[in-house]
Amino acid sequence: MITVDHLTKTFGTVRAVDDLSFSVRPGAVTGFLGPNGAGKTTTLRMLLGLVAPTSGSATIDGRRYTEIDQPGRVVGAALEAASFHPGRSALDHLRVFAPQIGISDARCRELLDMVGLADVADRRVGGYSLGMRQRLGLATTLLGDPPVLVLDEPANGLDPGGIRWLRELLRFFASQGRTVLVSSHVLSEVQQTVDDVVIIAHGRLVHASPLTDLAAMAARHVEVASPDAEALRAVLDGRGWRYTPASRDGVRGFDVADVSAAEVGAAAFGAGVELHALTQQEIELEDVFLSLTGQSTDAATTGTPEVAA
């Protein structure tokens, strides 16, 4: 179990993380979500002992990272800013860390095969693409076969095939009972992967739940208008549908929740009510995420630099 308890971090006058509390359970993939600048990377750095919190704590199975014996065998972590010596091969990169964890050369080769880099294991990392570097970073996190994985933007640089591969790999790890925490600033990037979501904005928690609960916040509704608004209202009341008054092009109507346009149209037709407008609207899961984090679609697309991350 990963536990973040009233975690706060300030850099001068900037409060990057603000009284943040959440937990991450074993046997599930948890998406740690928020726009650029929300404080995700700062939180992960505090969890991994790279940044000291101003107050609060971040623990793994009740212990701070710095208190864990052989942490490489307990926590596998890959931060977005992971760097590699450009002159080393992928195999030599893993060999640098292997003695610290007590890992054999065979394990290094096994991991490079697992992440799809076996054919380029002896090639210098300086010539790797961003996606290949992401795979090498993941191999590095897995050296000690840890029960906890902490990955910062692991899909960055991966092509669609690579994203699918990553999704299946993380699902496999969770099925083994491991704790998997994956950060991203784009919900659509991880929504087919995660079981739970923790969403932050401006360093604060704005939502934490199973993904299914977040999905329930998405909805569909129908905009319908008629020259005989009272007759249309009677139809809606007769079906027990929830609605609010609205108008379309000067014609009175209603905004009807959780139904389809086909259902409303069929009910109006059966009652002989003339319609001048019938439009189905969908509130997508991504729209819910943007609303929770206070973003517009344009802001989510362009992003802003992460403060003190």
Mean pLDDT: 89
What general form does the structure show?
Answer: elongated
Query: Roughly how many Å is the radius of gyration?
Result: 25 Å
Number of helices: 11
> How would you classify the helix and strand content by structural class?
alpha/beta
Low-confidence parts: 297-309
Question: Could you tell me how far the N terminus lies from the C terminus, measured between alpha carbons in angstroms?
Answer: 24 Å
> Helix fraction?
25-40%
Order of helices and strands: EEEHEEHHHEHEHEEHEHEEHEHH
Strand order of the largest sheet: 5-6-7-3-8-9
Proportion of beta-strand residues: 25-35%
The major beta sheet can be summarized as: 6 strands, mixed
Number of strands: 13
In short:
The protein has a six-stranded mixed beta sheet, with helices on both faces.
